[in-house]
From TrEMBL:
Residues 195-204 have a biased composition (Basic residues). It comes from the Bacteria. SUPFAM superfamilies: RmlC-like cupins. PANTHER family: BLR7373 PROTEIN (PTHR36448), CUPIN TYPE-1 DOMAIN-CONTAINING PROTEIN (PTHR36448:SF2). This is Cupin. Residues 182-204 are annotated as: Disordered.
Amino acid sequence: MPVKDQIKNFARKLVEEHPDAATLRALVRARKPTAIHFRDDGIVPNNPKLPALLYRGAVKLKGRRFPPEVIIDTLFATNGWARSWRDTVYDFVHYHSQIHEVMGVARGTARIECGGIKGRILNVKAGDVLVLPAGTGHRLIESGRDFLVVGAYPQDGTYDECTDTRERTDAIKRIAKVRKPKTDPVLGTGGPLLRHWRPHSSRS
């Protein structure tokens, strides 16, 4: 999301009450993510080395003291994924060539296309978390009226938004240079993202 959306969310977080570390740990399920590799489809480069990761039901949200978007936002920030935003997902194909992105579903359900038009449509619901390595195309196909996502980014990297095939050549070079994050946005320093995103990670 643009910087203005991140600033707006930062201002909101200043006045919110946030769960403490012990509460957060109790709300997180140690799920094994599904790793999904997407090939360059000629339009969207995707990521040649790193898979997208889908954590099903990673966060317990129902009947909690804190709003679900606050829980997810705080979880990501605690694990070093910040510059967050809260909104829906763009309904046009786009990708980020200079940064990885995590999206946690706080409310509702949706169908999100990942990997471009030749990729896969993923059904997601509240509590699911989707981590997209730099270059991974994504767009919203459809969603419920109450659908809400919390998005965030690791410390390294610069937000950009690529939608045009004329950007491909330079974008591919930028994607190759994006550093791997130091932490898993859901499970921190010991999370499975660090294993799945090793340099020698093989395709599934």
